[in-house]
Amino acid sequence: MSIHHNPVLLNESIDYLITSADGIYFDATLGFGGHTAELLNRLTKDARVIATDVDENAFNYSKEKFSTDPRISIYKFNFSMVDVIAKIESIDGYNGILADLGVSSFQLDNKDSGFTYRENTSLDLRMDKSKRITAADLLNNFDAKQIAEILWTYGEEKNSRKIASMIVEKRKTKKFSSTFELNELIAQTTPVKYLTKTLSRVYQALRIYVNDEVSNLKELLINGLKVLKKGGRFVVISYHSLEDRIVKEFFAEHSKKAADKKSDPFGIMNLEPKLKIITKKPVVPSKEEIALNKRARSAKMRVAERI
Ligand SMILES: C[S@@+](CC[C@H](N)C(=O)[O-])C[C@H]1O[C@@H](n2cnc3c(N)ncnc32)[C@H](O)[C@@H]1O
Question: Is 35 in the pocket of ligand 1 (CB under 6 A)?
Answer without folding.
Answer: yes
